[in-house]
Amino acid sequence: MKIQNSPTLRRMPTYLHRLFKLRLAGQEWVSCAELAEYMGIPHIMVRKDIAMTGLPGNKRFGFKVNDLINAILKFVGWDHATSATLVGVGSLGSALLGFTDFQAYNFRIESVFDSDPDKIGREVHGFEVYDIAEIRERLKLACPKVGIICVSSIGAQGVADVLVSLGIKYIWNFANVCLKVPEGVIVQREVIAGGLAVLFAKMRRAEAGETVTETD
Q1: Are residues 103 and 182 in the same domain?
Q2: Are residues 45 and 87 in the same domain?
Q3: Torsional class of 209: left (φ above 0), alpha (ψ -120 to 50), beta (otherwise)
Q4: In principle, which of 41, 168, 189, 196 could form an S-S bond with 163, CB 3.0–4.6 Å?
Q5: What does pTM read for this prediction?
């Protein structure tokens, strides 16, 4: 299966964030021009992004806010609930547990594990932290669809091996290491330093007098 355009996918949550606010404000319609101004990107880019969802627009008014929200949720795959387990309750793992927007995306973290005795048994953003040694016992009857790895690069492969052995085929990896997984297991690796490198590249261009935009 061909993966859909990545830049478009990465813009979808920002569209949703704006659309949710418009809905709360009682706004019924939204135009590509309005979204483009908010995003700081060309109007044609917004039009192409929305076209990928298959939602037809109204030439006069644009798109109904509710319809566009539903179309984006379906396009991304957030129109149905997806369960997850998170391993590693350090600074990053704790931040993810506190990210309330996951609820709007139907992404539900149902269990949390760590190996630190000082964290086991405590609650982090309303989630009880379980002992990683109990992960097989706790997940054997109701295994989530996604595994989130927020441990160090040294321990990430071991955690991935356990998740795969439990039948988890989708891994969101925040450890700075390339995981080795069997065929059929999909890993999405997030490298925070990669975003920082892009930012610094834009800084160098801007300081050299070049015009840098959001889409660069």
Answers
A1: yes
A2: no
A3: left
A4: 168
A5: 0.89
